[in-house]
């Protein structure tokens, strides 16, 4: 009897669920406010295809293919629109847009304190102002000796490998370098990745976190199924977030206990010096340090690795870059690569931009939601409340109608319009579509630091080494991406230029 009752109950619940899903699918295909936007019908009905693409690490590539089929705006999931129009950057992320659109899908890392990445309004402005001193031009040039020291360690490891005639995974070495740099600057911690030629356990934990964020974001987007799907996120992944936050907090506490010390020049030097201007709570310092370690590491390593890859397969661009570096450095008395000397290298800047265009470090879209009770206009479309929108970087940077010879590595397209090397066919490129650091009040705070750091690392590497690819493992089209890239090794053969 009990079994029969149970069976009836199960059939009843299953039927009700089926009916609910069928009615919801019909609504999403007929009456939903986004019904007029193009996209595959299955994506209009369910979030599942987009989530599945995320779990496979293929979202940026799948969204790119959708844009190629459906045009500049695509309904990639029931409530999710992806835009590629250059004007969408300002419409979604610009100063005006911030009034009606809020960040969406960024989970709160701690209940009692939010980092600037997930804070809003006056809280965001206060935090951003406090941190901006540590990213000013002055702070960047004050960091040069510390950067030079880390880069020297990077070069020393590469020298050792090249003398041993081993093939080097320069992609991993760049990751070691970027973690050592930001670990020291934002957490006063020596990860020693380069010294030990291995990931510090904390860094290994973070790499797991990058993946966790994508899993959790996609699970949470599945509505009533979310709690069930969260059960499948492995415990060690969720623990990686907690452990990272705990260890970051401990490091910040230790650094604050040292206080303002003239022998230390790191991010906290600037925070401690400027505490008069409505500083940060201790909790905010702790969560921001945790976020900086994530935000400031992999994107830098990815941008340089991607650029090196494209240089390796484009010998003419590679030679031109070597010529530029050699020309600037040999004309100097000390013959040392410095931040000042890289400012006289326009082609290195162009190569990094072109590398990030074809291989953006953040290939996906940063989501914003039209706030409750508001509407928003994006690329000429009026959008109702609760619509989630984003500009996906990989699709936007590689569309044929944004960039001529869109899939070719042509750094010259970033030279000034009147430069003799600028190809005429690139003069109509939609350069404003390329925003790897985003735009508006929440754009990348580390943009200036990133360019200075990337140029210094790349110029130093090329000044000291000749390189060529050792294999085809770094096939970009086959790579996966979970918030950041999950990239394969970039193995190169190195030859020292000055023995
Ligand atoms: C090539 C390197 C980098 C790229 C492409 C990049 C890209 C971005 C993007 C697209 C955002 C906006 C995120 C959003 O809207 O959710 C962002 C935010 C941010 N980035 Fe970067 N980033 C890079 C390097 C760095 C570095 C080196 C640091 C610091 C050490 C840094 C610190 C930050 C911070 C603090 C934010 C949050 C800003 C705010 O919310 O006001 N980034 N970055």
TrEMBL record:
GO MF annotation: an example: oxidoreductase activity, acting on paired donors, with incorporation or reduction of molecular oxygen
Entry annotated with the keyword Transmembrane helix: yes
Top-rank taxon, per record: Eukaryota
CDD domains: CYP60B-like
Membrane-crossing segments per the record: 6-27
Binding-site positions, heme: 444
Keywords, ordered alphabetically: Heme, Iron, Membrane, Metal-binding, Monooxygenase, Oxidoreductase, Transmembrane, Transmembrane helix
InterPro entries named among the record's database cross-references: Cyt_P450, Cyt_P450_CS, Cyt_P450_E_grp-I, Cyt_P450_sf, Cytochrome_P450_monoxygenase
Pfam families (UniProt xref): p450
Cofactor entry: heme
PANTHER family per UniProt: BENZOATE-PARA-HYDROXYLASE, CYTOCHROME P450
Family (UniProt): Belongs to the cytochrome P450 family.
Name the record gives this protein: Cytochrome P450
Source organism per UniProt: Aaosphaeria arxii CBS 175.79
């Amino acid at each position: 009897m009990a079994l029969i009752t149970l069976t009836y109950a199960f059939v009843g619940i299953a039927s009700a669920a089926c009916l609910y899903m069928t009615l919801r699918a019909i609504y999403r295909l007929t009456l939903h406010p986004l019904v007029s936007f193009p996209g595959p019908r299955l994506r209009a009905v369910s979030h599942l295809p987009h989530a599945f693409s995320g779990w496979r690490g293929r979202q940026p590539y799948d969204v790119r293919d959708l844009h190629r089929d459906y045009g500049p705006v695509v309904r990639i999931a029931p409530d999710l629109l992806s835009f590629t129009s250059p004007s969408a950057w300002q419409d979604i992320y610009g100063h005006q847009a911030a009034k009606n659109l809020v960040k969406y899908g960024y989970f709160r890392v701690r209940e009692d304190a939010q980092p600037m990445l997930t804070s809003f309004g006056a809280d965001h402005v206060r935090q951003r102002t406090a941190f901006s001193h540590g990213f000013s031009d002055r702070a960047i040039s004050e960091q040069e000796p510390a950067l030079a020291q880390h880069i020297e360690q990077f070069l020393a490891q590469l020298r050792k490998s090249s003398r041993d005639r081993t093939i080097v995974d320069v992609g991993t070495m760049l990751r070691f370098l970027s973690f050592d740099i930001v670990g020291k600057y934002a957490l006063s911690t020596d990860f020693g990745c380069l010294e030990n030629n291995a990931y510090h356990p904390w860094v290994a934990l973070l790499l797991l976190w990058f993946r966790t964020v994508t899993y959790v974001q996609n699970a949470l987007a599945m509505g009533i199924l979310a709690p069930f799907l969260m059960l499948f996120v492995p415990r060690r992944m969720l623990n990686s977030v907690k452990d990272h936050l705990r260890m970051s907090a401990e490091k910040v506490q230790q650094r604050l206990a040292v206080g303002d010390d003239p022998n230390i020049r790191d991010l906290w030097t600037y925070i401690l010096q400027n505490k008069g201007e409505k500083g940060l709570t201790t909790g905010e310092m702790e969560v921001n340090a945790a976020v900086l370690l994530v935000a400031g590491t992999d994107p830098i390593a990815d941008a340089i690795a991607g650029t090196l890859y494209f240089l390796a397969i484009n010998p003419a661009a590679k030679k031109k870059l070597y010529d530029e570096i050699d020309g600037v450095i040999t004309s100097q008395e000390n013959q040392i690569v410095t931040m000042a000397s890289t400012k006289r290298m326009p082609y290195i800047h162009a190569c990094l931009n072109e590398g990030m265009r074809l291989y953006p470090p953040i290939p996906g879209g940063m989501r914003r939601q039209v706030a409750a009770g508001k509407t928003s206009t994006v690329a000429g479309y009026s959008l109702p409340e609760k619509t989630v929108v984003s500009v996906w970087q990989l699709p936007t940077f590689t569309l044929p109608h944004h960039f001529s010879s869109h899939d070719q590595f042509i750094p010259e397209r970033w030279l000034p319009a009147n430069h003799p090397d600028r190809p005429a066919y690139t003069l109509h490129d939609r350069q404003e579509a390329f925003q790897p650091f985003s735009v508006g009040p929440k754009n990348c705070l580390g943009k200036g630091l990133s360019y200075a750091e990337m140029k210094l690392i790349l110029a130093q590497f090329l000044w000291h080494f000749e390189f060529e690819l050792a294999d085809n493992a770094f096939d970009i089209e086959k790579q996966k991406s979970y918030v950041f890239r999950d990239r394969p090794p970039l193995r190169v053969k190195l030859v020292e230029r000055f023995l």
